[in-house]
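Q: Can someone sanity-check these two? First one:
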Amino acid sequence: MRFGVVGHSALAQEAVALWSSLGHEVLAAGWPEGAGDGAVERMPSVGALLDSLEPLRRVFVFGDDEVLAESYILALAARLDVSDVVVDAAISSPEGPARRMAMLSQPRARYVGFGLLSQDGGLRQATILGGGHKVGFDLVATLLEDLVGKGQCWYVGAGGAGQILSKLLAAFAWVERAALAEYASLLVNGCGVGAAEVALAVRGWGVQAGETPSLEAVARELECGGPRVDLAVKGASVEEQAASLLMSSGVASWMVFAAFYGRFSGGSSAKEREVHKSRYPRPANAELPAIGVLLEDCRASFLALRVIATVEFAEILGPVSDAWSLQASVVDCLRLLRGAHLTRSPMYEPFVTAAADPHGLSLLAYPRVQFMLSPLVPALRRVCQLAVATGVSMPVVAACLQHFDGKTSPWAGLRLGGA
C-alpha cells in the first residue's frame, strides 16, 4: 500500500521501519536528512507528497512539537478533499484534537485520532486507541494493526477520544509507578532495608497483583541505585496532561492529583527526614517492625492500592466519557487498564460484574469488593502511619487511603454547620 507520513519523531521512525518491512511504500515529508534512509521516499513538500498519492489518500502526521504538527495539518487541509484520511499521531494537549479537527473542517477530510498505550512510548506490546471519524478509522485499521498486531487496535469514540483515553490510562499506570517509588523510599530511606532485599520482594508482589512492568522497572532501579532511592519520574508529562484533562472535564482524581503535585515536591530528602526526626522524635522504646512484617505490610498495602486505583478509574470514566465523547464501555476500559489480568485474575473479576450493574453503586459498596479489601486496608493504614513516623513523603499512598475512607466512612458526605 502507498501512503504518506508527515513529520518526524522516534515513534514515526519505528512505525515506518515496520511498515517498510511489510512491503508498504511510504512517502515522507518533513523528515531530517539521514532519517529513515531506505525505508521512505522523501518528498520536498506536503503538497508534493499529496500529489504523489492516488485518490482516497491516507496521511499520518507525527511529531513531538505540537505547534509544528499543527502547521503540517494546516498545510494538508489546503490540499485535502472529503475522501482523504488524516491520522493524527503527533503529540497533543487535551484540547489539541478538537483544534485539529476544526482545521480539517473546511475540506471535511476524515480525521482519525491516534492514542498509544505503551510501556515505553514505543510500539512493542502496545495498544492503539483510535478516535475520530469511524469510516476513516476503518480505512486505516489494517495499517494500524500492522504496527501492533491484530486485536490490539480499538476504536473508542468520536473526536479525540483515542488520545484522551490513552492519556487517562497512562496516568493511572504512572500513579502505580509513583506509588511503588514511595514504598521503596519508605523501606530503604525510612526503615533502612537493603535495596537488593526490597527489589527481590517487589518482584514477588506481581504473583497476586498480576504481572506489571512497573514492578520489574522499580526492582531494576533499586538494584542499580544502591542505598539512595529516587524513583520519581522527573520530566514526565503524562501526569501533567492527565491532571489538565481531568481539571478541564470537572473531574477529581485523588491519586492522579497526588502524583501530579508529589512530583513537584520531589519527595522527602535526607535532610528533611532528619529535621522531621528532630521535631517529632520517636519514643526511646519504639522500634520499627521486623523486616518481614514491613515487607508484608507493603505488599498487602500495594494490593489494596491497585484495587482502589481501579475503583477510582472506573468511577471517573462516566464524567470523562460525557466530556470527551468516549464510547468504550467501562469493562473494556478496565481491560485496557489491567490487560489480561482482568479476565484471568480473581482479584479484578468483581469489577466486571459491578461495572455492568444498572444501579450505579460505588464499586467499593459491593460486598465482593469489600471482602477483597478487608484484609488489605489495615496494612495500608499501618504503612501511612509508618510514613508519618519516619518522615517519608507518600502522597499517592495517602491519597489512596483518603479515597477509600471518603467512600466508605459513615461520616463521608457530612455537612458541617448545617450548610
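And here is the second, same format, sequence then C-alpha cells:
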Amino acid sequence: MENYRGIIGAPDKVVARDDRDAEWVKNKLALEVFEDTDVLEFERPKTIEEEIIAHWIIENLPKFLEAYGLEAPKLISYSDIRMIDSKKSDHKEISNLIEMGGGGAYIPGTNRVYALSGPENLLRSAHIIAHELVHAHSFSSVETELDESGKNIYTHQRRFGLIIVNKDEEFSNFFMFLNEAITEELTRKFAEKYFPGFFLISEEFKKIQEKVTLQGILRNTPMEQLIDEEFSDQKFYCYPNERGILAFLINDIFNFNQGRFTTHDDVFKLFTRAMLHGELLPLARVIEKTYGKGNFRKIAELTRERQPDFINEVTNFLKRTHKRTTDNSKKEGGPTTE
C-alpha cells in the first residue's frame, strides 16, 4: 500500500457549491494542517521507545486495515503522535477529550493524535496510539457554508468515520459510541495479530492476554450473556459495553440475512467500510432490512450519547425490534438471501 489519499487531518470529501470551491477548501485545510507544528503546553517529548512504537504502528496499521476497507492510508508522521504530560492532563484544552475516551484523542481536521500514558507503560501507549490512528485513517468529510455577508466561506465537520455530525449540539453526534466500538474492535484485532511479534511490548502483551477473558465478540452469543458476564469489566480493551452492542447487531444481521454472509467478520466489514471508506448506504440498507424501515436512524440516535441508562436503552430497543423482525421473518417463510 504505497498511495496516500492525503495527509492526516485533511478531509476526504468537501461538500461545497461547486467543484472549484470544494478543491480550494480541501487544499486550504490541508495546508493549515501541514503548517500546524506548535507544541502545546500540556505535551511532553516522546521517549526513544515511544518514537519506535509510533513508527512501527504507523507502518503496520494500514496493512492490517486494508482487509477492512482502507483503500489508501493517510500520510502520517511520528511527529503527529503527541504524548500528554500526566501532570497536565486536566488542562482545559484536552481534559474533555480524554474524559470522552479514556486515555487518548484524535481531533478531526488536525494532525494531532494524543496519548495519555507514562513512559514506563509502553503497552498502554501502543494500545492508545493504535486506537487513535484508526480514527485518523477513518473517512472524513466537511461542508462549506457562506457567512451572512455571502462573501466568506467557513467549514464544519459533516462525517467522521461512522459518525454523522450534529452541528447543533457538541458531543452529541449520531453513531458516536458505535464508531468507538468499531474502532476499538479493530484495535483489538490489530493488537492480537501484531503485538506478540513486536519486541518492545510482546512479553507484557502475552501476560495481559492471559488475564483478558474476552477472546472475541464476533460470535453467536446472547447479548445479555455478553453484557453480564464478559463485558462487566473493562479489562485491557476499551468500550466493552459498546462493543457488546456491536456484537448484538452483527449477530442479528448475520442470522437474519442467512446465505448472504459467510462469517460474522463479513458483517463486521460492512461497519468498517462505512467507517474507513465512507460507504454508509450498504450498511444502512442491511440494518433497515434486518430491523425495519427507519431503524437505521433510530440506532444512530440511540448511540450518540452515553447516558447512565445508555446500554439498557439500546439493548432493550434492539431486543424488541429483533423480536418483531424474527416474528415477521417466520410469517414470511424465513429471511431472504437477496
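A (reply): Looked at the second one. Confidence is low (pLDDT under 50) at residues 213-234, 329-338. The chain is about 50% helix and 10% strand.
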